[in-house]
Write a structure and sequence with these properties.
The complex is a heterotrimer of chains A (524), B (332) and C (233). With 524 residues, chain A is mainly alpha-helical. Chain A contains 22 helices and no strands. Chain A has a single domain, classed as MetI-like (MetI-like fold, Orthogonal Bundle), CATH 1.10.3720. Chain C has 233 residues and is of the alpha/beta class.
Amino acid sequence: MAGGAGELSLSPARIAGGVALALVVALCLGTLLPLVLAAEPGRGIGPADRAAIRFTLFQATLSAGLSVLLAIPVARALARRRFPGREALVTLLGAPFLLPTIVAVLGLIAIWGRSGLASRALGLAGLGPLDVYGLGGVLLGHVFFNLPLVTRMLLQGWGAIPAEHWRLAAQLGMGPGAVFRHLEGPMLREVLPGAFLLVFLLCSTSFAVVLALGGGPAASTVELAIYQALRFDFDLGRAALLGLVQFAICLVLAAGLLALGRQAGFGQGLGGPVARHDAARPLARAIDAGAILFAAAFLLLPLGAVVVRGLPALIAGLPAQVWPALRVSLSVAVPSALLSLALALALAGLVTSVRRGLLAEALTLMGLAASPFVIGTGLFLVLNPLVNPFALAIPVTLLVNAVMSLPFAMRVMVPAMRRAREDYGRLADSLGMSGVSRFRLAVWPALRRPAGFAGGIAAALSMGDLGVIALFADPETATLPLTMYRLMGAYRMEAAAGTALLLLLLSLALFWIFDRGGRWLDRA
Amino acid sequence: MTRLLLASAAAVLTALPALAQEKPVLTVYTYDSFTSEWGPGPIIEERFEAQCGCDLKLVPAGDGAALLGRLKLEGARTDADVVLGLDTSLTAAARETGLFAPHGVSPALDLPVDWDDDTFLPFDWGWFAFVYDRTKLDTPPASFEELLDAPEDLKVVIQDPRSSTPGLGLLLWVKSVYGDEAEAAWARLKPHVVTVTAGWTEAYGMFLEGEADMVLSYTTSPAYHLIAEDDDTKAAAVFAEGNYLQIEVAGRLKDSDQPELADAFLAFMLTDAFQDAVPTTNWMYPAVTPAGGLPKGFETLAKPAKSLLVPADEVPALREEALAEWQAGLGN
Amino acid sequence: MIVLETLVLQQGDFRLEADCRFREGAVTALIGPSGAGKSTLLSAIAGFLAPARGRVLIGGEDMTGRAPADRPVTMLFQEHNLFPHLRVWQNVGLGLDARLRLDRAQRAEVDAALAEVGLAGTGERRPAELSGGQRQRVALARALLRRKPVLLLDEPFAALGPALRTEMLALVAGIAERERMSVLMVTHMPGDARAIAAETALVAEGRVAPPRPTGPMLDAPEGALAAYLGAAG
């Protein structure tokens, strides 16, 4: 009766994966349905929406292309150099991505704005202030958020090149050109499509950054059009239609790019040192030093501005309301990270066990293409007749955050799961291990480390989330980012800056704890 | 799993009210910043509960527009007894839902305009204005025309009408000043616009960072800096064509299960207990000046000689057209 | 001749000492328990690992500070000897020119080398289309073309079946003899050492023992070698 794991067998692991997938699809795609049902005849997609779609595609393509292009030299430099502070820099690469939009925007402006550091430096030289607003500003913002992310993904790619290949290259006397052609190029061909896709999706649903740095209505995205349809025009049908457009873009791109490249993980990126005999030349050193300095300055200056703005208030003491908000945020972030991990485990199991795992995987990317406004409204329409939405404030936020961070967790878990399967799958089969014991003894040990990392990302992302689901907002359960916004809304900019710094530190700490936890479990 | 979650949540919900059912509950939907710890919410809740023998529940629902959106989503099923925080750009759409009941009172109000709306009652108001830093800008433009004609290095930061209340206010402001010439006016404003943010918060933050000389806000904004921070450098520019008014209103729901409490709340809203909290928590003018007058510092605020306001029932028709002009004039 | 002069290799807690020489133009086996440092020793000779002390001399020349490419050494790894995206002929051709700009004569050399290892006509295939044994033959063909006097084998045939392994070893032995190559071969199998290595050195307990004739040494094992062979059963 218990045959091998044939294509059609319904193992508990696959059922779990199926349930997880159904949950993700229901949340991302299913929430469009109540909108359509509740919609009255609306305007449909107009010329302004079409312009928004065009601009979205345009800026997301440019943003993703630029982030990926700039990340290549930075990742290469970090991969082949060892210097004091390298680990700290790699850790800080995670920081911009975790910042609430407004904090990041103000940090960027402190450096690149009309009265920012760069403008003032130019002023000393008698030159006019910088004007980044417009397409340049949008790209600046998106590269700031995503360059570090791509760098980490590529760093993982470099780490995945077998040590023997580096030795082979050294023995054969390959110069930088040949190393790029034979080692780095092929790796990049595998990793870049996935990285590009992830960044493209992140940028295509961007909204506040695009507006704040975009300079005017010419820089409007689909996400803004959805927001406008929902709250300005109350045109549910159009919102659903635009939501579908967003998914269509996502799926077409995901299918194309995932098929092009193999999976790109962006794991620890701190892998063991490989002596790099090809990198000893002075020119290579200079290029690497330049890339690292550029990345460090580009990332650390705005982060430094966030720290400098926030430190006085953080030291002087934050308003009392911050602390309960902190508790709420933690009580959302930690379970949300665990849920995200559980979903990622189940889905990674499914994706790696069926022959056509690509579709399943593309579907999990929907968390990135889904508009939080649509999800919120759809869920509200479904749940409101049944239960009081406030009672669901925490569970809903938790669930939505988990699904939104799923694509990142998947990037880490799928390659690890694939490796575990290749390394131990047959052994486990031959020993007749199945179900819980198989997971506990054969799968989990290989996944603890990446799981810690993925959990860290999910927790930190959830921590920085604004609790977008305003429809479920309960006055008693304001999160830390929401409290920060409220402080700003009440003109309390210093206290808000202090809260932002606290948020940044906590997100990084949470990430660090999860990441270390995974490593600790791995060793124990 | 979702179902399990729902079931347990439902179980908790049905169990809870049974325990705390002695006091009637008045549910008021309002915008988020009203309920925040620094907004009027906590004071008003305490003061009203002291006299009503009820539990006042303030429910935050994003901003004014989101408030209306939520009401539309819930329809007649809504738990709300009172909605507080719509403004005159939204009242026509709110009335159209048919969910509101007339308030049936005719109070004496201290508004710069006459008020004869039988459904919605104002609780505070203010003028939109461009706020600037006195130490950095000696002579702010004295009119919209001066602003549009100013040298290009006079920069402003404004908000998007599709996502923010002040942005919508500016849209209607420009439309009332320039009428059919609105698109051209936006095109003339364009070189002065640093950027258009999603909300007030981003714009004001950028202004304080020094990104622009002026930011679209309220004439009352300087009062915060003066009273709470003892900083008198901020001021609002008054325009000769007039400044656009924002009047924030409340209304009671037709299907409320607490009609008496809802009426009591609306009445309370116009008493000193509510009104004297408004200036220094919501940083707006109270709809009825309290007996003690306005807080010290408010007398220093700039007062426009002329108030502009598009009649509420004309807003829906005008909005679409004005938005298209805004997009055409400011875009590209 | 390979000479290890008061050589000390250090990696974290791991430490290996060697002070010995290996015969020129002959095959020497390195035998010893896992983790004893056999591969580490080869890495140091190939230039992937700088010694903490002492030096490596090949053909009388000091190798200290010389990049791997500048040493008269070819090393074959247990796996990953080929680039998966390159065709077989390209993988071999890298031995002639790392930039793969090969003229007609060089292409002919590549084909000859492939024929020599029994893979004539497979030049256009990719590594994934070959068996494990065939892949190591390709690597061997590249080693042939490089014409370096020293060949280091880090168990490149460990994953092959007994018959295939014997065949590959015979191939290596034949090539080494003809080309007058000095071969250092890491192995776990006493049989492999007996088959082609005139001498064998034991690597154990942090030391590389000077090589001794293989037959007598394996016939009457002593000390650490006895323990190792006994444990290997």
